[in-house]
Write a structure and sequence with these properties.
Number of helices: 37
Subunit structure: Oligomeric complex that consists of at least the alpha, beta, beta', gamma, delta, epsilon and zeta subunits.
Number of strands: 19
GO cellular component, one term: Golgi membrane
Low-confidence stretches: 1-26, 254-270, 560-564, 609-634
Structural class: alpha+beta
Main location: cytoplasm
Mean pLDDT: 80
Subcellular location: Cytoplasm; Golgi apparatus membrane; Cytoplasmic vesicle, COPI-coated vesicle membrane
Helix content: 40-55%
Radius of gyration: 35 Å
InterPro entries: ARM-like, ARM-type_fold, Clathrin/coatomer_adapt-like_N, Clathrin_app_Ig-like_sf, Coatomer/calthrin_app_sub_C, Coatomer_g_Cpla, Coatomer_gsu, Coatomer_gsu_app_Ig-like_dom
């Protein structure tokens, strides 16, 4: 436990126990004073707080143990917490400063309830008015963390006085407390503006820093007030380095748009806020200079305006302080992502940092050089990096590998040296994530650079000979089966593949058999040889391997009818399996054996999540399900709807949405809606639950206002006759719409019913009822409701098998976004498609990303989408959208959906 926590040296020999040796041959043992302590034993020791003659040393030890348990996540029951709290309050009678500080910490950590706070308030208020400044500061901090709004008004006067106290420790404590209190009691804290304004002018650095933070929080919702505050302070009245850094951040906050407003409102072209940032580049200490440089590099400025910040960062690259070198190279690394030419002047200094003893600095220097280097410097960089890689951890190696991949895509003619580097790295020691990053990089380069295919595949084949990771071996074999047959000499890969059948585990052997079959299907000259090898696999000890070999032999030999022609056989081998396994399993479980064979085309292709649970009233029994609950959730809605005569003529159900909640949680009526989409109709299923025991609802219906959905016309509704307590029922409203058109619109909903009072003792309802209504939330039918989330197992093959004539490509500006990940998620939600191959996950700090989506549009049209995202400015996201589908008109509609979304 650090000395700052316990208030002095705290010897605890009775707790010291060995828990780890430094080395097997080293006799020295490390000790932890907290090893093996138990909550029950410590609570027993806490009885020492009740002793008439307090043992300060022992009490300090016990509180230290309690604090350790709390910070390790140990939970105390209500009784235990109350007993400890009351025991700790008795320690206020001690005048020992170290013990008092521990008492303050303990009260904060226990977070007493409102009735317990009253007991300790008098002691804390007494300390707030103490002559000992340390008592005053700590008491203020504790009191403001545990007090509620009703008691806050009683101590407000003391807090306002403390803000302008001459002692900076007390003033700072009051300001920090104000920052915490402003979150729950903003109106009270706003009344302290004058005192906080005075604190901002304080000569004490920490007081000025905390004062500025609190004043900004008070005015954060008033953009004009913030602008005036920043304007007044940028004239030089801020002396605290921490406050200066805070002010720099305020001037460049995007949400305040201070910089933009400044440039727009100044007619003579001056930009006082930018001038302030530029002048801060020359303000000591270094933390202020770095903060100003970092903010300038994040702004949309010209090369001339950026130059002073780059020059400052370059000077820090040769500093003797590691923290300055790290901060500078990290900032330059970010600049190099978008403006590499601005960093090229720093390359000489960056090369010297490649030998820095701090591996983080060296890694950032290398990755920055890889982003700023030119084609002529690639070979030299590769040689330097080779000697560097063996000295760093895997996490740094992965960063370097990803940077090399980006550099190779930038200079494709240098693929040989980079592939050689990656191949050599595969032979070095490293964990799974590191090796996977290399394999993924090689696969990417093979896919993007046609000339690199054969060399890259050979490198992967050589690696697979010694690969100890099953997943990577299977991944390489799968990729080899897709790409190998299309090379100039496919036969060279057969030996590597068949060696996997002989030497590897069952999983890899099965993958190798599938890869051999793909070579046999695509390369006629290799088919006899493949037949021989597959026959050998029939004697394998693993069922999966033998079954695959048998199936592929019969398929390639024409003994099993996969389709009408060779194309059908190739689709079987190479095509994507677009049926979700969960849906297939559910359909197989409900299949009843008969003369009619199981038809896989009847299985839903939609990737569905688990049904939402019905809401229930607190403390009451959960209501019955809002809809029948068959074995398969996928089959539930079609069976239910087809059994209703009014909807039997609507045709095949295309899609059912997830339930959309139309009421708040814990209300008297719980209602959600499911949107059932047909080619020419939409059926709205309102699932209703009555959670009031004293009421019976009859003649329950939903009045739907579709005036904001012009393409929909209501054709019928099916009300609910009765809705007793703790039961659920369904109300249906059907609309007609243009056939196979993704019509959208907003629907307003009003629940109408007759309420009858129920005698809870007898369960009988009154004969007379009262008509009533309940306003429900609005909801929309959006374009995503007309798209099924259907996965494909091999996106690239599926994309290439689509007609290129159906492809439509366009570029879009998505505006300012919080992050690249947020932009990717927004487009996925608009389209309602299924992300493929994990591409919905955006790597941290990525400046560009490609996302692959698949789905089936209404009418049964398969759609594939490739989204390419990039940052074109500060949080400005640009997107390239490429669509292929079975119908070119649908490709155009996808673009229309994105353009209107």
């Amino acid at each position: 436990m650090p000395r700052s926590l316990v208030g002095g040296d705290l010897a605890v020999p009775e707790m010291a126990q060995p828990y780890m040796k430094k080395d097997d041959d080293d006799e020295e043992v490390e000790y932890s004073p907290f090893f093996g302590i138990e909550k029950g034993a410590v609570l027993q020791e806490a009885r020492a707080f009740h002793d008439p003659q307090l043992d300060v040393r022992r009490c300090s030890q016990v509180i230290t143990k309690l604090l350790y348990l709390l910070n390790q996540g140990e939970t105390f029951t209500k009784v235990e917490a109350t007993e400890v709290f009351f025991a700790v309050t008795k320690l206020f009678q001690s005048s020992d400063a170290g013990l008092r500080r521990l008492v303050y910490l303990m009260i904060k950590e226990l977070s007493p309830s409102s009735d317990e706070v009253i007991i300790v308030t008098s002691s804390l208020m007494k300390d707030m008015n103490s002559k000992t400044d340390m008592y005053r500061a700590n008491a203020i901090r504790v009191l403001c963390r545990i007090i509620d709004g009703t008691l806050l008004t009683q101590i407000e006067r003391y807090l306002k006085q403390a803000i302008v106290d001459k002692n900076p420790v007390v003033a700072s404590a009051a300001l920090v407390s104000g920052i915490h209190l402003a979150q729950a009691n903003p109106e009270i804290v706003k009344r302290w503006s004058n005192e906080v304004q005075e604190a901002v002018q304080s000569r004490a650095p920490l007081v000025q820093f905390h004062g500025l933070a609190l004043l900004h929080q008070i005015r954060q919702n008033d953009r004009l007030a913030i602008s005036k505050l920043v304007s007044s302070l940028t004239r030089g009245s801020v002396r605290s380095p921490l406050a200066q850094c805070l002010l720099i951040r305020y001037t460049s906050q995007g949400k305040l748009q201070v910089m933009r407003e400044s440039s727009m409102n100044t007619q003579n072209g001056d930009r006082p806020f930018f001038d302030f940032l530029e002048s801060s580049l020359r303000q000591k200490p270094e933390m202020v200079e770095l903060e100003a440089a970092r903010k300038i590099t994040e702004m949309d400025v010209t090369s001339r305006e950026l130059a002073p910040a780059i020059t400052l960062l370059q000077s820090f690259l040769t500093s003797h302080k590691p923290v300055l070198r790290f901060a500078a190279v990290r900032t330059l690394n970010k600049v190099a992502m978008t403006r590499p030419l601005a960093v090229t002047n720093c390359n000489v200094d960056l090369e010297s940092l490649m030998l820095d003893t701090n591996r983080s600095i060296a890694t950032l220097a290398i990755t920055t050089l890889l982003k700023t280097g030119n084609e002529s410097s690639v070979d030299r960089l590769m040689k330097q990096i080779t000697s560097f890689m063996s000295d760093i951890a895997d996490e740094f190696k992965i960063v370097v590998v990803e940077a090399i991949r980006s550099l190779c895509l930038k200079f494709p003619l240098k693929y040989r040296s980079m592939l050689n580097f990656l191949s050599n790295s595969l032979r070095e020691e490293g964990g799974f994530e590191y090796k996977k990053a290399i394999v993924d990089s090689i696969i990417t380069l093979i896919s993007e650079i046609p000339d690199a295919k054969e060399i890259g595949l050979l490198h992967l084949c050589e690696f697979i000979e010694d690969c100890e990771f099953t997943y990577l071996s299977s991944q390489i074999l799968h990729f080899l089966g897709n790409e190998g047959p299309r090379t100039s000499d496919p036969s060279r890969y057969i030996r590597y593949i068949y060696n996997r059948v002989i030497l590897e585990n069952a999983t890899v052997r099965a993958s190798a058999v599938s890869t051999l079959a793909k070579f046999g299907a695509l390369v006629d000259t290799l088919k006899p040889r493949i037949f021989v090898l597959l026959r050998r696999c029939l004697f394998d000890t693993e069922d999966e391997v033998r079954d695959r070999a048998t199936l592929y032999l019969q398929t390639l030999g024409g003994e099993v009818s996969i389709g009408n022609n060779e194309k059908d056989a190739n689709d079987f081998l190479f095509g994507s399996f677009d049926v979700p396994l969960a849906n297939l399993e559910a359909s197989l479980r409900t299949y009843e054996p008969s003369e009619k064979p199981f038809d896989i085309s009847s299985v839903s292709r939609e990737v569905r999540s688990l049904p939402l649970q019905e809401k229930k009233a607190p403390g009451k029994k959960a209501p019955a399900a809002a809809a029948p609950a068959p074995v398969s959730a996928v089959d539930a809605y079609p069976k239910m709807l087809s059994s209703i005569p009014e909807f039997s003529g609507f045709g095949k159900l295309f899609k059912s949405s997830e339930p959309v909640e139309l009421t708040e949680a814990e209300t008297e009526y719980a209602v959600n809606v499911v949107k059932h989409i047909y080619d020419s109709y939409v059926v709205l299923q309102y699932n209703c639950t009555n959670t009031i025991e004293e009421q019976l609802l009859e003649d329950v219906t939903v009045c739907v206002d579709a005036s904001d959905a012009e393409e929909f016309s209501e054709i019928c509704s099916k009300p609910l006759a009765s809705l007793p307590y703790n039961s659920a029922g369904q109300i249906f409203v059907a609309f007609e719409k243009p056939e196979r058109v993704p019509a959208i619109g907003k629907f307003l909903n009003l629940l109408k019913f007759t309420v009858k009072e129920v005698d809870t003792s007898t369960g009988e309802a009154d004969e007379d009822g009262v008509e009533d209504e309940y306003q429900l939330e609005d909801f929309e039918i959006v374009a995503a409701d007309y798209m099924l989330r259907v996965a494909v197992s091999n996106f690239r093959n599926a994309w290439e098998n689509m007609d290129p004539e159906s492809e439509r490509v366009d570029e879009y500006g998505l505006g300012v976004r919080e992050s690249l990940a947020e932009a990717v998620g927004a487009v996925i939600n608009i389209l309602g498609m299924q992300p493929c191959e994990g591409t919905e996950v955006v790597p941290r700090n990525a400046r560009s990303h490609t996302c692959l989506l698949s789905g089936v549009f209404i009418g049964g049209v398969k759609v594939l989408v490739r989204l390419s995202f990039g940052l074109s400015g500060p949080n400005e996201v640009a997107m390239k959208l490429a669509v292929r589908s079975d119908d070119p008109e649908v490709s155009d509609k996808i673009h229309e959906i994105v353009a209107s979304g």
